Task: inverse folding
């Protein structure tokens, strides 16, 4: 048993729903109790889809448990087939139905429906949403892919996008454009945008472009093994990664990697003098493995940030993220416990968080700016405008997204200089934010002073405390923390103005 | 007193009800935690369930709600499913951790879920054990919010019913208003009841456990939410008298609800009129503004929160709407009977759900407004039907005179919006 306040991933059947909802011609019959239909609103409200997810639930209740839930499942299957006439059916159980062991797969296969019926085994008490999506897509490929001729022209499939994916809609559009510029045809985009019939001809492509390893790698590996289709290993998020990706694709396709970078603005925006203030900003990065890794590379190499923390919530990516963190001189944080992430952020006092909607909340509480880089998604992660993370436009979008939460260049200096101006003071927040910027919370203001070696609390002398308040709020927490750490190291029991500035000099970079 | 609107004999109280079984597109009772944990400020709700339960709680309001939550999920894992003794030890450990982190918690609810019920994890035994461990600082109770036992608002019923046995005994004459209401609404209604001359007016749930009301033979119960059947039965079991009345939605509903209380406490007509006249006039005026948009329009209710019958009564009698179908997850005549009597006899009531068949009926009848859950609203909008998300009716202050206009406006807004947009 594990206490959870917020979860980064839903249960695995929600992953299966993401695959089914992204596709057409596929229907999911889910053995689940009343109430599990809440998952529909993820798609209709958060993603703003204009149709119901193609899912029929048995919604059994206590009274059904006394009679025959297996009959209820079969009846539901039959009705769903009659009503929706899908090209293929996936069937499975949610967490509760898993416990009553009706074997939806076996029941459905025995019904003799005239379309392929694919049984999903998604262990709800062990695995999570990304696994559910990955396994569902893999099983669909395994059951539906047929041997077909390769296309005469060089072509590829795009694998991984799903319903409710973080910017999947726009990433696909951008990557299709990049591939088009290289003269490579797109065979099938799957699962989102495909039907079971489309999946049958996945084998016509010469290779696969894997956009989201979280949801597509199992299928990509299987296709490589069964059909001899190699797949791309670089996820094109960021300038360097996009260049590497195009080189990799060009090699696989046997074409020239000459590409048109005229749409790419990040390098100049990052080089221009206005961006100097970004130098060495301490960022904490957390998300799914793929997006966290991409963000780390961009943060260090393309924005000039200092990465002070790096981690992911999906354990499937623990190994690569640990290795990557080592390159950055860090120890990776691999956890799906929101409170642990919060604790790490509080301890590290970064100047900015690149995280998920969860970390955005943590940032709000701690008064640290945050930009969102990864699922879990929120209605705000489905903007009306095209807003990819991948490719040239993705790099541009990310530059804007990451700079936006910060107080900008000269404004930062002016706030330092004139912070007692009654209108233009630090707690009024950045001028480009309509609302007041996050205030240091009571929590931060009342942050308990450090504790010295002897166990006695460190005392802030009144002058030092007053001086600390002259430091703008967005760095005050760090200054307090650094000074206390410094005092502890020096064995001091009280902090004077001198201690404050000695600490400042000590931590200067 | 003003004359009530004409009422046809028994309205649709005895009209045939369409009963359906099939896919139900409703939340489970766990969802009630989303408002209960805000209402009861020293309570923590610990769901013993699966990742699905945790995911539901953070998704149910349509987006993630990020306030410091006073709820959490103890997620069952493979090892817990193996042996019962383990699960109880694990639960004790998680509770100890939680209470250490949140010393402000005075009441802890262990909330059963579908998986905890299917594996027959006995939370009442756990609650007893934990109460002994943490008394007197923390009271530990348990109830089920599982989807196999409860729909949506039934979770609140189960929660309040679990509190009834531990309420102190009182011999005092008092009026007990039952049902979680937004604080502002609770205060307004309490003031009206006090102004009528009812000397002791208490609420269940209270905002803090130290303010828990007593219950006894001189307690009269006035129910503020139409989904509290078990709670009312439990209070009656402790000797309380229960008043039957339509629910306090709109000017008419609020007046009939207050009048029922006035009748039980022997309040004179003169006093009743003096107290209610001004707010009734305000409510009528406010409803009239929104009713201009609603009058003559048709409405179709999908089952959701159990508020459907009382709201249909409000819309048909005060806003001039025609209710085509009014669905509720279940119909408890002991609670909504008085509202049913005020509905036109031709109103089609439905109980339970087969969502696909109901969608067929909804599309065929082309209502001007469809009241439905979040999973259905956007798809129906995309088909050209105007919708009102039902959950907003549960999360907004809508009871009483001062909110009557807001309640009507919630229904009018989607229609006005459609008229306002030139797309």
Result:
């Amino acid at each position: 048993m594990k206490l959870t306040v917020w979860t980064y991933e839903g249960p695995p059947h929600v992953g299966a729903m993401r695959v089914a909802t992204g596709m057409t011609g596929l229907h999911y019959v889910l053995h689940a109790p009343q109430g599990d239909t809440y998952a529909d609103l993820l798609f209709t409200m958060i993603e703003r889809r204009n149709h119901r997810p193609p899912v029929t639930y048995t919604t059994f209740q206590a009274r059904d448990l006394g009679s025959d839930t297996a009959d209820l499942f079969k009846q539901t299957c039959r009705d769903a087939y009659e009503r929706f006439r899908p090209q293929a059916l996936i069937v499975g159980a949610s967490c509760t139905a898993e416990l009553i062991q009706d074997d939806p797969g076996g029941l459905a296969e025995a019904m003799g429906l005239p379309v392929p019926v694919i049984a999903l085994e998604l262990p709800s008490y062990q695995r999570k949403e990304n696994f559910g999506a990955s396994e569902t897509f893999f099983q669909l490929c395994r059951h539906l892919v047929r041997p077909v001729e390769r296309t005469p022209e060089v072509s590829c499939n795009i694998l991984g996008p799903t319903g409710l994916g973080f910017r999947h809609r726009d990433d696909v559009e951008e990557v299709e454009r990049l591939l088009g510029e290289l003269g490579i045809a797109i065979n099938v985009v799957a699962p989102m945008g495909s039907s079971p019939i489309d999946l049958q001809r996945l084998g016509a492509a010469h290779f696969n472009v894997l956009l989201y390893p979280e949801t597509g790698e199992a299928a990509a590996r299987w296709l490589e093994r069964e059909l001899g289709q190699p797949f791309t290993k670089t996820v094109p998020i960021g300038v360097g990664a996009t260049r590497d990706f195009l080189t990799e694709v060009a090699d696989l396709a046997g074409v020239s990697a000459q590409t048109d970078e005229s749409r790419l603005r990040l390098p100049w925006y990052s080089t221009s003098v206005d961006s100097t203030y970004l130098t060495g900003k301490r960022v904490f990065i957390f998300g799914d493995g793929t997006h966290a890794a991409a963000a780390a590379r961009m943060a260090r190499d393309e924005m000039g940030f200092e990465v002070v923390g790096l981690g992911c919530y999906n354990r499937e990516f623990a190994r690569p993220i640990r290795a990557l963190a080592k390159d950055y001189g860090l120890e990776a944080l691999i956890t799906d416990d929101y409170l642990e992430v919060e604790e790490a952020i509080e301890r590290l006092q970064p100047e900015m968080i690149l995280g998920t909607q969860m970390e955005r909340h943590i940032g709000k509480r701690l008064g640290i700016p945050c930009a969102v880089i990864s699922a879990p998604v929120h209605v705000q992660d489905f903007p009306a405008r095209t807003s990819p993370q991948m490719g040239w436009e993705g790099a541009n979008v990310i530059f804007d997204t990451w700079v936006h939460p910060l107080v900008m260049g000269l404004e930062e200096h002016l706030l330092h200089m004139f912070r007692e101006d009654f209108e233009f003071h630090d707690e009024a927040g950045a001028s480009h934010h309509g609302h007041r910027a996050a205030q240091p919370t009571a929590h931060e203001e009342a942050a308990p002073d450090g504790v010295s070696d002897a166990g006695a609390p460190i005392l802030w002398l009144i002058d030092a405390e007053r001086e600390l308040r002259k430091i703008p709020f967005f760095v005050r927490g760090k200054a307090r923390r650094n000074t206390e750490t410094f005092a502890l190291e020096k064995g001091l029991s009280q902090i004077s103005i001198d201690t404050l500035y000695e600490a400042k000099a000590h931590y200067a970079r | 007193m003003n004359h009530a609107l004409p009422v046809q004999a028994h309205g649709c109280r005895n009209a045939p009800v369409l009963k359906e079984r099939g896919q139900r597109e409703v939340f489970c009772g766990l969802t009630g935690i989303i408002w209960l944990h805000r209402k009861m400020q020293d309570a923590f709700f610990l769901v013993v369930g699966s990742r699905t339960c945790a995911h539901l709680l953070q998704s149910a309001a349509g987006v993630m709600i990020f306030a410091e939550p006073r709820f959490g999920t103890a997620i069952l894992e493979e090892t817990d499913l193996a042996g019962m003794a383990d699960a109880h030890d694990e639960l004790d450990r998680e509770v100890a951790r939680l209470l250490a982190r949140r010393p402000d918690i005075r009441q802890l609810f262990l909330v059963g879920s579908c998986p905890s019920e299917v594996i027959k994890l006995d939370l009442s035994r756990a609650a007893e054990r934990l109460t002994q461990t943490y008394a007197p600082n923390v009271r530990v109770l348990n109830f089920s919010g599982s989807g196999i036992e409860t729909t949506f608002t039934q979770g609140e019923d189960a929660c309040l019913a679990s509190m009834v046995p531990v309420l102190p005994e009182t011999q005092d004459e008092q009026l007990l208003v039952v049902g979680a209401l937004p604080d502002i609404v609770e205060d307004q209604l309490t003031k009206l009841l006090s102004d009528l001359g009812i000397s002791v007016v208490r609420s269940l749930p209270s905002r803090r456990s130290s303010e828990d009301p007593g219950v006894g033979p001189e307690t009269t119960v006035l129910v503020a939410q139409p989904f509290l059947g078990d709670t009312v039965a439990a209070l009656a079991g402790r000797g309380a008298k229960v008043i039957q009345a339509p629910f306090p939605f709109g000017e008419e509903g609020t007046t009939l609800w207050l009048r029922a209380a006035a009748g039980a406490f022997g309040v004179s007509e003169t006093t009743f009129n003096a107290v209610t006249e001004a707010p009734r006039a305000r409510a009528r005026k406010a409803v009239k503004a929104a009713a201009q948009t609603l009058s003559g329009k048709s409405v179709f209710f999908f089952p959701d929160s159990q508020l459907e019958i009382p709201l249909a009564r409000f819309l048909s009698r005060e806003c001039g709407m025609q209710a085509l179908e009014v669905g509720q997850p279940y119909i408890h005549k002991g609670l909504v009977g008085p509202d049913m009597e005020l509905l036109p006899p031709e109103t089609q009531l439905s109980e339970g759900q087969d969502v696909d068949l109901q969608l067929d009926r909804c599309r065929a009848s082309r209502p001007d407004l469809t009241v439905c859950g979040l999973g259905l609203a956007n798809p129906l909008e995309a088909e050209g039907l105007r919708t009102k998300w039902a959950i907003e009716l549960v999360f907004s202050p809508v009871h009483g005179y001062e909110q009557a206009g807001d309640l009507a406006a919630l229904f009018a807004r989607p229609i006005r919006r459609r008229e306002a947009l030139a797309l």
